[in-house]
Amino acid sequence: MTPEQLNERLRKLELENKRLTRANERLKVDIKRAESMHRARHTLDDEVLETMYRQGRYLEAMLQHNSEFMFIYDDNQRLVRCSDSAIAAFSVSSQSDLIGRTHSELIKLVAGTDNRHIYDIENRFETVARSGAILHDDTAITFSASGITMYFHVIYSPLTDDKGNFNGVVAVYHETTELVHAVHRAEESERAKDNFLLVMGHEILTPINAIKGLCEMLSTISTPNLQQREWLDDILTTSAKVTDLLQDILDYSKMSTSQAEFNNHDFDLLRMLNQIIEPASARSLQKGVEFITEINRNVPRVFYGDEHKISKAITNLLENAVKYTDKGKIMIVADVQLRQRKQHFIVSIMDTGSGIAEEQMKRLFTPLKLEESIEKRGSMGSGLGLAYAHQVAEKLGGEITVFSNPGEGAVFTIWLPLSVGNPAFIQEVANLPYIRTLPSVRALTVDDNPINLTVIGGFLKKHDLKVEEALSGARALELVKNNYYDIIFMDYMMPEMDGITATKELRNNGVTVPIIALTAYTMPGAKQFFMENGLDDYLSKPLEDDRLNQILYRWLPLNLLAGAISSTGETLKVLVADDLPGGRKALRIVLEKLKCFVFEAATAATAISIAETNAPDVIFAEPAMTDGYNMLQTLSERIPKHTRLITLTRDENAAKYAKSLGSVQSILKPYSSKTVHDVLMTVNS
Fold it and tell me: In terms of Cα–Cα distance, which of 581, 626, 636, 584 is closest to 605?
């Protein structure tokens, strides 16, 4: 090898040595890095293991000390782990006695095989597995060993892996037994309150209705002077207010606890609206507030529904408008509109009163507290008016809308999805004969209250029935055993033997004559209830002669009614138009004694409406009432030829002027029954 070749070889070796040295250095660095990574990984594994260990201890502590029943199941619904409280509930020595069992098998251990929860649980697991969502459930488990029922709110949560695959379920049972029992106690307390109100309501209504009945009878059997009549009117008005207030409290209480039922039947809408509008319009006119009524011609005459509740709801809205309107006008508009594919009967009441502040709108339909009632309304009251109307609308599937600006008045609209009734209802009521005298009919009245017996007896004697009385159900059984009666009137609520029990005894003894229940309430479904218990019909207190007439006509046999009834051709229809309640009442009493069918109107607009709708035979009109002379002129232009328009006034000059407006005759106040009788005789002739 030449020196040149040797030098070249040495140079290459030096270069290779340098490369190897660098590679060795890099290897050392890699080894150090690997050693460092190894140490770091070892440290991380220790930390992960420590974290997992701590989490396991936390989970174990939670399972040991959690008072709730907690169960962890795999994807086959078999138990993997449960809380110690659950172990205690199952009365086993260790968790190993439960591991591997399905949830249904575990429930059977403590509840037997007849617990409904067993049959539902599989569906809960399938729902959680399918949806991957948390499921909430409420259930009751009756423990077979003790017979105790416990209530639980159960939360089922899915267990999934990192990829979202379903691995099992965690079921946590939170006991709600005390809460459920508290709810039950509250419901029992509510029922006890309702029963108390029902009983007390009957106890209070009974003497009030007796007072009203006695006042009515006193009005018919005597001729009181003006002062005495005012006293009678005051007694009747006060009694009616107390009755209405008590009925409001009872009705609101029932509806607020979802116990309200509706006594649906055909009713005359125009008649109902007239009864609502008359007193409201009279009070408005006394305050100098214009009152306007508009009824769309498309509104059906007959609707099907609970007339009492609907009437009360509209009355409350209208009274609210009258109360807060001191100037301007009040307008009530009735119409029908299609809403949400259903025909709604709607009534809008607009006023120019004080309006409603924004903060009051939020609690508008909430019953007022006593101090709020005094402060905001200026007088004592139940504060249930708007709340009652709102509940009626909601229960019927309708609503009440309100628009108002403070100082500019308000508009309340009630929407009611009512069905149209049978138009023949109007004709049926109009053609009902009036029973004049039934001297051959024997009636038995049964009531534990002597005053009530006096009242019902007085009403029956107006039809000349022979009446006997019984102060108890037991006494009624004795009398029926030894005497024959054509009809029996039975008080529903009596001590020792109530009306239902007495009726069943009578039916068992072969008594088939009509038995009519007497009750202080117009109960929902009353007729069906009484018929199911052996009675034939019912009369609500306070008694009304029209309703009694219907009962007698419906249930007495034709051979007893023959010659005792007057057809509608013989009974005069008479309209009394007077804005003074005492004046209307005095004439009505005289007219009813003469067996007339009486309409009353407190305003000129109402009188015109009734005259156009019912075509009365006679109209007694007081020209001194608001807009009275315009009313006379309008009536003379619109009434049928057979209708006699008669002025009833204290002022001879008013009588003369009324004659120029179409009045055919005048009666000067004070008048006698004979004067009215003589006038009617000229009509019949």
Answer: 626
The model's pLDDT over 369-402, given as tens digits with 9 standing for 90+, comes to 433 433 443 333 445 778 888 888 988 889 999 9
Tell which residue, 534, 468, 479, has the closest CA to residue 501: 534
Two structure tokens written together for 536: 């034939």
Cα angle 606-611-617, degrees, rounded to a multiple of 5: 140
Element (H, E) at 319: helix 307-323
* Residue of 336 and 363 predicted with greater confidence: 336
Cα 624 from Cα 629, distance rounded (Å): 8
Q: What is the DSSP letter of 332?
A: E
Cα separation, 470 vs 44, in Å, equals: 99
The span from the CA of 207 to the CA of 185, in Å, is: 34
- Cβ atoms 137, 173 nearer than 8 A: no
Alpha-carbon span 490 to 470, nearest angstrom:
9
Residue 653 class from Cβ within 10 Å (0-12 exposed, 13-18 middle, 19+ buried)? exposed
Q: What is the pLDDT of residues 312-346, one digit of tens each?
A: 899 989 988 998 899 999 999 999 888 777 889 99
Q: Is 423 helix (H, G, I), strand (E, B) or coil?
A: coil
Quote the crossing angle between the two packed helices 581-593 and 226-256, to the nearest 10°.
100
Mean pLDDT throughout 154-165?
83
Residue 372 has a pLDDT of: 44
Provide the pLDDT confidence category of residue 452 given band limits of 50, 70 and 90.
confident
Closest CA to 312 of 265, 380, 249: 249
Q: Is the dihedral of CA 375, 377, 380, 385 positive or negative?
A: negative
Residue 82 pairs in a beta bridge with 71
Rounded CA gap, 275 and 292, in Å?
15
Q: What are phi and psi of 634, to 5 degrees?
A: -65, -45
pLDDT score for 517: 92
Rounded to whole angstroms, how far apart are CA atoms 120 and 104?
9
Tokens of 279: 């007193």
Residue type, 484: Y
Tell me the C-alpha to C-alpha distance, in Å, between residue 18 and each of 21, 376, 417.
Answer: 5, 106, 103
The tokens describing 263, both together, are 């006594």
494 secondary structure, DSSP code: -
d(CA 5, CA 11): 10
Q: Which among 380, 378, 315 is positioned nearest to 347, based on CA atoms?
A: 315
DSSP secondary structure of 599-615: EEESSHHHHHHHHHHH-
Distance CA 673, CA 586 (A): 10
Strands across the sheet with 302-305, in order? 265-268, 302-305, 419-420
Return phi, psi of residue 3, to 5°: -60, -35
- Kindly state the tokens that stand for 468: 């006997």
